Amino acid sequence: YLDTRNYWEKQYPLKGKGATLKSLVKQKVKTMKITDFTFFGLHRAALLMNDYGLKDVSDKLLNYLKETSVDSKTQGVYWKQNLDDWGWFSSKVVNHAGALEAFNKLKPNDQKFIEDLKIWLITQKEVNSWGNSRGTSEVIFTILNSGKSWTNAESDKATIVWGGKELQPQAQATGYVKSTVKSDVLDKNLAIVTITKPGAGIVQGGLFWQYYEDLDKIKSSENYLSITKELYRKIKTVNGEELQKITTETPLKVGDKVTVRMILNTDRPMEFIHIKDMRAAGFEPLDVLSGYQWKNNLGYYQSTKDASTNFYIEQMPKGKYVFEYDYVANASGIFSNGMTTIQNYYAPQMNAHTKGDIVEIKSN
After folding, report:
1. Strands, E, within 163-290: which ranges?
2. Is residue 80 part of a domain?
């Protein structure tokens, strides 16, 4: 109430119970511990106490915020304790924007810290949505009104050198640059891209190399995401069903039940993830009906196709996850089992895939 009321207090001073509440809060905040504040409360109280003339309290809160922040080379500055939770006041992105607002108003000379806070918001948008329209508008407003201008002519300039040659943007109004090189002119120098940006702001992009290769010869690759895939035979024992690793000594046979285990890691929270697990022709899936699943604290939509099983994940927090599902060996022979790919729909350059594999199924 006091935070909202503060915007109009000069025009409409607090009276009665409102004035009493303000007086009580000013007395109470002097003896409160930092741990008594939520993350939302830290940046709102810092702004409010500064307006109330309690600059020492405001500085104490901001110093704590800066000391507990994390500075990432690739993501900017953020706070581990700033987490999404239930309630309008517990949006991680909006709370980050609130902290940015506080530092911009109360510590305007700390330009590097302010710019790094803005960078985190932009890098989050690379792999996540900013939530609802209210949160998105608040973040955009805060970015545009904090620190250095990212919209002036100087901020829009960037020099991109690829393979020793400077790229000339064709669509300067949008800032989007795309350049394609065909295989007959490929050389090792094209693996190096140098981007120079003299003004404020950041440049985001990706470099892709696409080519054809036999599935069983593909090597594993990872970029911000990683994924591995293992096959196990599911056998019955006196202790119940157990997983047995498939080796040359214990080959698969027609009729065997197989468990696919995929282990994936992400170094940051992401949204809109697609996993495509290719399947050998000698396997038949047991889960043929598509539907929503909830396993290991992760929700996803699972869809079975003729040659693959697909997983669509709306939200995936930072961490390690294990996916398992079953199919049965229904034909003998030597088959290509393909590979498993994972990719962020928001940022396609954030992707990974397993190596290609061959599987042998013997007849009984």
Report:
1. 165-166, 193-196, 221-222, 225-237, 240-245, 252-253, 257-266, 270-278, 283-285
2. yes
